[in-house]
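User: Can you predict the 3D structure for this chain?
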Amino acid sequence: QVQLVESGGGLVQAGGSLRLSCAASGRAFSSYAMAWFRQAPGQEREFVARVSWTGRLANYADSVKDRFTISKDNAKDTAYLQMNSLKPEDTAVYYCAVGRTSELIPRRYEYWGQGTQVTVSS
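Assistant: Here is the predicted structure, written as structure tokens:
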């Protein structure tokens, strides 16, 4: 069992930055790949970014590429999502999730955090 707690969400103006954190406890976080997903009202949950269990390989959705950076600190059992040049369309609840998978779809991830709201004003 892995427990995940996100933090760092909030309200920011377009063009601003936020850094989300995902703190893990329980079973060995270092053995899991970790991903961020987001869900806007009335929308399906969508993939944002994924980092491999080593922290060395990352994947990004096209919509966030070159603006967001995912990282994973296994020594601290924490993962991060640095979000720069934020746009109103980035507004959503952001969730971190872990799983032993290389796929980018929600159902492949075993454990989820409760989510943190990110709101970007225009």
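DSSP finds no helices and eleven strands in the chain. The CA atoms of residues 12 and 120 lie 5 Å apart.
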